[in-house]
Design goal:
Layout: E1 3-7, E2 10-13, E3 18-25, E4 34-39, E5 46-51, E6 58-60, E7 68-73, E8 78-83, E9 92-100, E10 116-119, E11 123-128
Parallel strand pairs: 2-11
Antiparallel strand pairs: 1-3, 3-8, 4-5, 4-9, 5-6, 7-8, 9-10, 9-11
């Protein structure tokens, strides 16, 4: 049984930093690309970032590029999202996802589409102004 669990959310002031973590079990972690998504109230789920199985390829949404960094530690089955210079508009539920469909360990061109096979329950990030 695959389990994906996010942690690290909370309340932070604008301009601050926060690091999210995601652990995955029940799958061969380093077989899969991993992604972060977020969803604000009343909005659609949007892709934030994706990382290939080996960590050598990363992708970001324009809204977070230069402020967020995705990384992974395959030995620990853990994915990270370092978020710096946070803005109130970054407030959302953040989700970790594994295995973008049919991508064989790499982030597909459609990595930002929420068509991943495994999802966590999310962790809330709230940025106060």
């Amino acid at each position: 049984q695959v389990q994906v669990v996010e942690s690290g959310g909370g309340l932070v002031q604008a301009g601050g930093s926060q690091r999210l973590s995601c652990t995955a079990s029940g799958l061969t972690f380093d077989d899969y690309a991993m992604g972060w998504f977020r969803q604000a109230p009343g909005k659609e789920r949007e892709g934030v970032s994706c990382i290939s199985w080996h960590g050598g390829s990363t992708y970001y949404a324009d809204s977070v590029r230069g402020r967020f960094t995705i990384s992974r530690d395959n030995a620990k089955n853990t994915l990270y999202l370092q978020m710096n210079s946070l803005k109130p508009e970054d407030t959302a539920m953040y989700y970790c996802a594994a295995d973008p469909a049919s991508a064989s360990g790499y982030c597909p061109g459609s990595w930002f589409v929420p068509e991943y096979n495994y999802w966590g329950q999310g962790t809330q990030v709230t940025v106060s102004s």
